[in-house]
Amino acid sequence: MTKPDIDVAALAKLARLEVSAEELAKLGKEIPNILAFVEIIQQAGAGAEHKGEGLQNVMRADENPHESGIHTEKLLSAAPAREGDRIAVKQVISRRKS
Amino acid sequence: MNLDSLTIAEARRALDVKEYSALELTDAYLDEISKRDGEIHAYLEVWEKSAREEAKAADALIAKGESKPLTGIPLAFKDNILIEGHTASAGSKILENYKASYDATVISKLKEHNAVFLGRTNCDEFALGSSTENSAYGPTKNPHDLSRVPGGTSGGSTAAVAANMALGGLGSDTGGSIRQPSSLCGVVGMKPTYGSVSRYGLIAAASSLDQIGSIGKTVADARSIFEGIRGHDKHDSTSLPDSFFNEKRTVKKVIGVPRAFLKEGSDADVLAEFEKTLENLQSTGYEIRDVELPNVPYSLAVYYIINPAEVSTNLARFDGIRYGLSVPAGDIQSVYSKTRGAGFGPETRRRILVGTFVLSAGYADAYYRKARAVRELIRDDFKRAFESVDAIAMPTSPTPAFKIGEKSDDPLAMYAADIFTVPVNLAGVPAISVPSGMVPREGKNLPVGFQIIAPHGGEDALFTVGEDVEKGRG
Contact, B213 vs B178, CB < 8 A? Predict the structure, then answer.
């Protein structure tokens, strides 16, 4: 495999993670080392790539909801900001200024 | 009562015949905590008042002759297991002020036993690490040598049990996080079959690997806590049906050893202790066989792809909106990134970024999907080996406890501490670490653990062989 070109700042943006310039420099060395270490798996079992079975995600059925409102107060009490029975957040969509 | 030699079975007997009360037992542990935890730092919070109330409730049940196996037994709880009304921080600043809104299933079960909840114990942040140094609240020290780590990530619980600051405890094991600190602290730690203990209410690190398990001074103690928390749970969709464990298995006393794999990075005296334990088992009628696990040497690399991938996904929920830390900012994107930047520590950030990379378009095939495929080969290796042996033995850790700070600047050196424990989580099989000897380091004797691995649902073999290891030590 060709050595990946790793842009840690772009990864941090994807992960919604603020990382200082100093730490970016440090991670810019550490992460390629970690990826170089795990690359040994490429040598394992030829043909293993296409083995589809094995672990599967398990989901519960989306049915039988609990009675509305019974957990509301407990869960909202953990929220950083609330307005009535809602969690308050910063505006998500804003009108583009023309 | 002598806390050094006290076991759960002995405490149960003494409580039931009223040699001492559950309150006196709890007070004895609280006294030890106040004497010793200043230097060890196993606990993040001690619940003295509620623990005494729980002990009194236990005494009332005992007086009526209605005790259960864990009634009045004082236990320590890793900080990533939810107990309603109590803080659960997972060793992280991002959850510093988070109070659990419900009980984990293991907690509900222990409440039904009227066990005593002494407090929450230190751990690496979000169970990511091998030394407890990644806690946002400072490292825990090893009771055998305060300049050394207790191991991790459940190092607070294992140090508490080793220093008589709890009679037993709960931890979680994602890649060795119960077994490795148990080995380094000289206690028994067990990682059950994946799905045998509910993960409902365990703060998730890597969901396909995480498993709650028990810590005790003896195999019997670890077993009695495990018996108290196991069982199917409709709240955990990966929980196994109870019928899975009904199958009768006979333990024929054949143990496999993957000798070719054991040489990597192991200290010579740790390997010598391991061989000595095998000889003891042989002399009591066990047959020891070499087994081949050809793909197991890839385990560490597979683990350090799958773990960060799942961690980066699971920790996406911590964004300053629904609970936990929230750093104010001008727009919602900045609330997310500033909250996460301020709330997560360095190793957590590193794993999130590695996980983001191995899951990203263009790289997911070469890293994440390939790692999943190799994981299946590793599972097959174990399956094949268990056709000819009842259990597989390995050292738990390649070294005894290392110095605080020795590996904290070198992520790959820290990851290597997990070499013998991660294959078990990848395969989902159960394993136990049992103290098997001591090795000297700089004038101090440090404990070494012997790891026994069984097939899915083969917990009984762990206890049988584990107790024979204990007998061999005399």
Answer: yes
Query: In this model, does residue B11 exceed pLDDT 90?
Result: yes
- With a CB-CB cutoff of 8 Å, which residues 213-242 of chain B face chain A? 237-238
Which residue type occupies B112?
A: E
Both structure tokens of B461: 């073999």
Q: What is the pLDDT of residues B315-349, one digit of tens each?
A: 999 999 999 999 999 999 999 999 999 999 999 99
Chain A residues with CB inside 8 Å of B373's CB? 45, 48-51, 54
- CB-CB under 8 Å, B412 with A33: yes
DSSP E strand stretches across B149-251:
168-172, 188-191, 212-216
Judging contacts by C-beta atoms under 8 Å, the chain B residues touching residue A50 are 373
> Which residue shows structure tokens 């070109």?
A5
**Whole-number Å distance between alpha carbons of B377 and A17:** 34
3-state secondary structure of B172: strand
Query: DSSP for B14-33?
Result: HHHTTSS-HHHHHHHHHHHH
pLDDT at B265: 81
Count other Cβ atoms within 10 Å, centred on residue B332.
Answer: 17
Is the peptide bond between B71 and the residue preceding it cis, with omega within 30 degrees of 0? no
Q: At residue B227, does pLDDT exceed 70? A: yes
SS3 B418: helix
pLDDT, residue B461, reads 95
Task: Give kind and range of the element (H or E) at residue B40.
Answer: helix B22-40
B418 CA to centre of own chain: 12
The predicted-structure confidence for B19-59, as pLDDT tens digits, reads as follows 999 999 999 999 999 999 999 999 999 999 999 999 999 99
Q: Give the one of B301, B333, B360 whose C-beta lies nearest to A40's C-beta.
A: B301
Going B356 to B359 to B363 to B368, the CA torsion angle's sign is positive
Closest by Cα among B457, B371, B379 to B425: B379
Give me the phi and psi of B236, to 5 degrees please: -120, 110
pLDDT band at A61 (very low <50, low <70, confident <90, very high): confident
Q: Where are the domains of chain A?
A: 1-45
Question: Distance (Å, rounded) from C-alpha B319 to C-alpha B313?
Answer: 12
∠ at Cα B306 (B194, B138), nearest 5°? 85
Q: What number is the average pLDDT over the span B64-69?
A: 97
- Shortest Cα distance, chain B CAs vs residue A67, angstroms: 16
Dist CA A21 CA B87 (whole Å): 33
- Tell me how far apart the alpha carbons of residues B221 and B8 are, in angstroms, rounded to a whole number: 6
Q: B1-318+353-474 in CATH: which number?
A: 3.90.1300.10
ipTM score: 0.93
pLDDT of B152-211, one tens digit each? 999 999 999 999 999 999 999 999 999 999 999 999 999 999 999 999 999 999 999 999
What is the Cα–Cα distance from B80 to B103, expressed in whole angstroms? 12
Look at the block and give the residue holding tokens 């419900």. B102
d(CA B229, CA B439): 34
| Confidence label for A50 from pLDDT (cuts 50, 70 and 90) | very low
